[in-house]
Design the sequence.
């Protein structure tokens, strides 16, 4: 049994994956638990998010991401454990805290029959924000031309962006987004990434959940990988991947060189060939790549490094399936 | 804009943009008003028609009194045939000093009416002819009694029913849909209290009820239907407000137990339809059997209806508001309290 899950990958220099020192913590979660009968939805989760950080909670469906997030937001009460959000207690409902946090719930919640602009104005008014903020928010999420379109006529991606805009309309310090990119096509996801990056550039702290590990790897400063109510590992995605000590795969077109030639290159550990490609596994990609460059075989070359999915596999012993 | 104002505005917009809701709040009850109003337009208002042959002071007096509608005939035989055929209840023949009444005995009520009117008129004319000062004076004054013209009871009844529809459905569907779509949780994460949200929603329902009142009364007032407002019609306003709050509370209770909009509208219908039939929406309760009148006391719609009838068509004043208002307020408080206890922010 592993008691401190982060040590599994042996890279946890900071307890609970604490962020860089010198930064103030926006969120501090200590050992929260939430059980529904026998089901341990959240089973001793601890993490800290620094101000301005983009923090991701990843994991398959049912991992406990939403429950964790909602406990931090103050929508649910933890059975035990402690949450500090911007140095306040989010539970019981804390009106002093509410204007400083922005929340996008997993389901996009809108008022019936209102246009994009009216949604923003209405949500804004709940925080005493002038109606003029709506235009600015639409601009931020790229929906200016959809201002007068009703919520139910928007595409999935547009709804998600509007939903995020509604969470941001009152200019909160910390933003919680629950699977904002779920069920979006790749183009819509990419558009949303730009929005998320723009939000971070405004100095917001972002805590978001996703079941797309690849996406988290690209977006997040740090991630916590969750499964069955527990955090299995937490760090910067690159650190987690590096900690795996998994080989990098260099993929060449079949016929670019022979298998034996490939094996002869220093640093190459394994070579495999199939109908279309020749795959070289190495833990020292730099010398291998320069050797390949010397031979002029860089055409169509692909480098595939280990990903968070490999991290998940090594942590749980099973393939990642969202 | 304050949260209260903008929430109200958001709900009004949502309401006005929803054709189905508009239909059930305005068109649907209005259809009942129009259909029943036209169907029963003449009943109760009709005067008994009798045939008259010849004339003289008695016939003139009869015509003047307006108690009967007179159909002039020159030929007694033709008139008599009409009575035999059952087309007319009686024929009056006036020749010089003699007045002769031949009536069909089949319809006792009508026969008695004609008999009473004609003999009364003959007595009056006789008395006048003798020049004697009457020993007893007699004065009759019409009042709006329980037996109202149909449009007179249909308008308050259908209006109250329509308010119950918009109140119950409005509250239940908003609650269920907001809970399902997590709008409730989202609002809970904003620094506004539940009172603001609730009161803005109730305000929208009250506005809807007033709009229904204006539309229905305006339609009923047209010459086609001929509604006559008596007394202090504006006293209907407090009833519209209190009725709305009572029905809103019922809607909140319905919404608390239903997970989907479909379930909520089914449940709302189960509450409203029997209540409407048993509360005198489509017929005057005075004509209903005693047990039904007793049962109907349990429904807020019955009391709203009573109050509406009193202030709109029975010419009553503020005193007529007391009982209905007390019942509606009590209903609002009790049902509202229960609804608040079973209220859930999320599924
Ligand atoms: N209100 C609830 N009652 C019972 N079980 C719940 C409730 N909310 C969540 N769960 C269960 O807790 C587990 C974690 O759920 P959730 O936090 O939504 O996971 P995720 O967001 O990672 O998909 C799931 O197995 C879910 O079925
Ligand atoms: Mg979830």
Sequence:
């Amino acid at each position: 049994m592993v008691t401190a899950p982060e040590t599994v990958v042996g890279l946890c220099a900071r307890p609970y994956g604490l962020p860089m020192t010198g930064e103030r913590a926006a969120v501090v979660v200590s050992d929260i638990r939430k059980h529904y009968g026998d089901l341990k939805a959240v089973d001793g989760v601890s993490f800290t998010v620094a101000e301005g950080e983009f923090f991701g909670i990843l994991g398959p469906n049912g991992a406990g991401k939403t429950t964790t997030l909602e406990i931090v937001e103050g929508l649910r009460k933890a059975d035990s454990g402690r949450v500090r959000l911007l140095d306040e207690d989010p539970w019981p409902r804390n009106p002093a805290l509410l204007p400083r946090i922005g929340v996008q719930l997993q389901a996009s919640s809108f008022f019936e029959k209102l246009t994009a602009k009216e949604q923003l104005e209405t949500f804004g008014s709940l925080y005493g924000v002038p109606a003029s903020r709506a235009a600015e928010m639409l601009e931020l999420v790229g929906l200016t031309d959809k201002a007068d379109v009703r919520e139910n006529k928007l595409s999935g991606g547009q709804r998600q962006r509007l939903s995020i805009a509604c969470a941001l309309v009152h200019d909160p310090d910390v933003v919680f987004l629950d699977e904002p990119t779920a069920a979006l096509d790749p183009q819509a996801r990419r558009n949303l990434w730009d929005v998320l990056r723009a939000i971070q550039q405004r100095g917001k702290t972002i805590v978001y959940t996703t079941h797309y590990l690849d996406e988290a790897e690209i977006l997040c400063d740090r991630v916590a990988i969750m499964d069955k109510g527990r955090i299995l590992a937490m760090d910067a995605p690159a650190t987690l991947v590096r900690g795996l000590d998994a080989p990098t795969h260099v993929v060449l077109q079949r016929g670019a060189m022979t298998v034996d030639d490939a094996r002869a290159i220093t640093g190459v550990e394994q070579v495999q060939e199939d109908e279309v490609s020749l795959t070289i596994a190495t833990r020292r990609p730099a010398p291998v790549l320069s050797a390949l460059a010397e031979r002029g075989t860089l055409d169509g070359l692909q480098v595939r490094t280990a990903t968070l999915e490999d991290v998940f596999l090594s942590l749980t012993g099973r393939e990642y399936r969202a | 804009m304050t949260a209260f104002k903008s929430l109200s505005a958001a709900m009004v917009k949502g309401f006005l943009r929803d054709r189905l809701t508009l239909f059930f709040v305005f068109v649907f009850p209005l259809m009942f008003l129009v259909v029943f109003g036209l169907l029963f337009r003449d009943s109760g208002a009709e005067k008994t028609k009798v045939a008259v042959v010849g004339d003289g002071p008695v016939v003139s007096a009869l015509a003047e009194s307006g108690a009967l509608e007179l159909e002039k005939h020159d030929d007694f035989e033709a008139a008599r045939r009409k009575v035999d055929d059952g087309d007319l209840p009686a024929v009056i023949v006036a020749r010089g000093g003699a007045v002769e009444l031949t009536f069909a005995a089949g319809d006792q009520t009508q026969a008695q009416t004609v008999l009473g009117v004609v003999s009364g008129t003959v007595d009056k004319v006789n008395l006048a002819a003798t020049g004697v000062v009457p020993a007893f004076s007699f004065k009759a004054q019409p009042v709006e009694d329980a037996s109202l013209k149909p449009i007179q009871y249909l308008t308050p009844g259908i209006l109250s029913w329509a308010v119950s529809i918009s109140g119950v459905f409005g509250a239940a569907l908003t609650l269920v849909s907001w809970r399902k779509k997590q709008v409730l949780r989202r609002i809970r994460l904003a620094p506004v209290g539940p009172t603001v949200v609730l009161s803005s929603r109730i305000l929208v329902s009250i506005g809807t009820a007033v709009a229904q009142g204006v539309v229905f009364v305006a339609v009923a007032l047209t010459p086609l239907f001929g509604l006559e407002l008596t007394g202090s019609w504006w006293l209907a306003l407090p009833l519209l407000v209190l009725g709305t709050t009572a029905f809103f509370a019922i809607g909140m209770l319905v919404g608390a137990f239903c997970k989907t909009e479909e379930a909520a509208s089914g449940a709302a219908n189960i509450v409203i339809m029997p209540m409407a039939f048993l509360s005198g929406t489509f017929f005057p309760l005075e004509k209903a059997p005693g047990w039904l009148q007793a049962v109907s006391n349990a429904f807020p719609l019955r009391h709203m209806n009573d109050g509406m009838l009193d202030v709109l068509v029975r010419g009553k004043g503020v005193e007529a508001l007391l009982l209905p208002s007390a019942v509606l307020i009590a209903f609002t408080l009790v049902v509202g309290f229960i609804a608040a206890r079973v209220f859930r922010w999320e599924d």
Notes: The longest strand of chain B covers residues 90-95. The beta strands of chain B are 49-53, 69-73, 90-95, 98-103. The interface with chain A takes residues 1-3, 5-7, 9-11, 13-14, 17-18, 177, 181-183, 185-192 of chain B (CB under 8 Å).
